[in-house]
C-alpha cells in the first residue's frame, strides 16, 4: 500500500531535522520503503510517498522524528487505480 506522509516541521526545528537526517539517515524499519519526497518552498512541510504492507511500520518510523515534526498519514492510490475503482462498480 502507498501512503502520502505529510510532515509539518515544528517551528524552528527544520535545521535540527536535517542534522539528524545527515547523522542517522531516515531510520526506517525493514518493510517500509521510501519512494520520493517534495518540500514546500518555505521549507516547513515535507510530502513523502512511502510503501508498506503495515501502517505500524510508519508509526515506528515516526517515533524517531515526532519531536521535530507532526505527521499526517494518508493512504493513496494511483490515478489509474482510482479510475479503475470508479468504473468497476
Task: Provide structural commentary.
By secondary structure, this protein is of the alpha+beta class. It has a single domain (2-88), classed as ACT domain (Alpha-Beta Plaits, 2-Layer Sandwich), CATH 3.30.70.260. It has 3 helices and 4 strands. It has helices spanning 14-24, 55-62, 79-88; strands spanning 2-9, 32-39, 45-52, 69-76. Strands 2-3-1-4 form a 4-stranded antiparallel sheet. The radius of gyration is 15 Å and the shape is globular.
Record the SSE blueprint.
Layout: E1 2-9, H1 14-24, E2 32-39, E3 45-52, H2 55-62, E4 69-76, H3 79-88
Antiparallel strand pairs: 1-3, 1-4, 2-3
* Amount of beta strand: 35-45%
Name given to the CATH architecture: 2-Layer Sandwich
Q: What is the count of structural domains?
A: 1
Number of helices: 3
What is the CATH C level class, in words?
A: Alpha Beta
CATH homologous superfamily annotation? ACT domain
Mean pLDDT: 96
Shape: globular
Summarize the main sheet.
4 strands, antiparallel
End-to-end Cα distance, whole Å, is 21 Å
Number of strands: 4
> What string, H for helix and E for strand, traces the elements in order?
EHEEHEH
Return the CATH topology: Alpha-Beta Plaits
Helix content: 25-40%
The gyration radius over C-alpha positions equals 15 Å
Spatial strand sequence of the major β-sheet = 2-3-1-4
